[in-house]
Structures are given as C-alpha cells and as structure tokens.
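Researcher: Next sequence.
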Amino acid sequence: MIKQFFLILQAVITDNNKKTIKMAKKQAEVAQQERQERVNETISRTDQFFRDNKKTIYGILIALLVIGLAIVAFYKFYYQPKAKEAVAQMFPAEANFRNGEYDLALNGDGNVLGFAQIIDDFGSKAGKDVYFYAGICELQLGNYQEAINYLKKYDGKESILKARAIGCMGDAYVGLEKYNDALGCFDKAAAAADNMFAATYLLKAGVVCEELGNNDKALTYYKQIKDKYPQSIEGYDIDKYITRIESQK
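Model: Next structure:
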C-alpha cells in the first residue's frame, strides 16, 4: 500500500511539475511578447519623432558640424600661428631677463617686445611662464602691486617654480608692508616646495613673525628649518636666529 501510495504521489508530483513548467514557459513567452511589443512601440515612436522633426534634427546636426569646423579652423589658422609668434617674441625678453635687465625684459625697447606687451598682445598664448617673468620683473623694479597682479595669474605645475611665484608674492607683500599677507604666502610656498628650497620661505616667515612681534611663532619656523633642513644654506646659520629669540625670554 505504501509503495502504491508513493507511486501515485510521484505521478501527481510529476504531473504538477509538468504543468508548472508549461505554465512558466507560457508566462515567459507572454513576458517576451510584451517586451517585444514595448520595443516595437519605442522604435515606432522614435521613428515617428524623427519623421516629424527631420528638418530640425538635420538643422541641428549641420549647425554642430559648422561649429566644429569653425573651432578647428580657429585653432589651426588663428590660435596656432599666434601662439607660435608669441613664443618667438619670448626669446629676446627671456634673454634680457637672464641678464638682469628687468626693465628691458618687461617693457622692451621698441625693437623687441617685453613681457608686458607680449601679455597685452597674446595673453597666455606664449605659455603661463610669461606671467611669472613679468611678475619677477615688476618685483625687481619695486612695483609690488603690479608684481602681485602678474604672479597671481601664473598657474604653473612645476613645484619649485610654483613655490617661487608664491614666495615672490610674499616678498611683494613685504614691500607693501602687508605682513600678514606675506606670511600666508611664505607658508604656502614652503608647503609647495617641500624640499631644501622650503627653508628659504620658512626663514622669511620667521622674520615676518618677528616683525609682527610674534617671536614664539618665529621660533617654530626656525626650529622647523633646524629639524627638517639642517643641510640647507639657511640651516647652517639658523642657530643664531634661535639663540637670539631664546635669549630674550
């Protein structure tokens, strides 16, 4: 009896499984048909939209093509030649800069352009360094605000030059007696350099702190030089700065 019961039960289960599988297949077919109908409907709507807006779509594509060609033409026939001319104008100005002729390098002499006129005529087409050079020239000539204006526009990626530009802004702020602004620049310059050159900016930061009457903060800058950059030029003489402040306590 038990054997017959299980045989009957197995037959029932098998029959149910067949029905379940058949039902699942039917549901899958229905779902697939619904998906296909939705796809067909989407394609139909897209096709209808394209037919209804064909002129507008073609107009937009043509406009984009014209704009793209205009950009390419501008870059090839205007920007590139101007950039090439700007770079050529930089050579004599850079030579005058290296010779320490800062006024000539900045303003030119009527025959060759200086950095200031190169910026006026070409902007940054000669490269971002033009702002760096112009800022240093203004600083050397004692035109501190003009130096800051140029150096703020310099956006070089090389860490040493970036630090020097920021440090030179600090020097210009010292020239303007804006010591808090100068201190901020020297801090940033030291962080940007993060090598032996940082010692220069840390020393300047310490001197500015002394000018502001904050000897304790100045001492932290001097001790940072002693701890991190003892082999730097500033590191060889830093003990006298530290001793001078500590002797005042």
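Model: The chain has eleven helices and no strands. The two ends are 109 Å apart (CA to CA).
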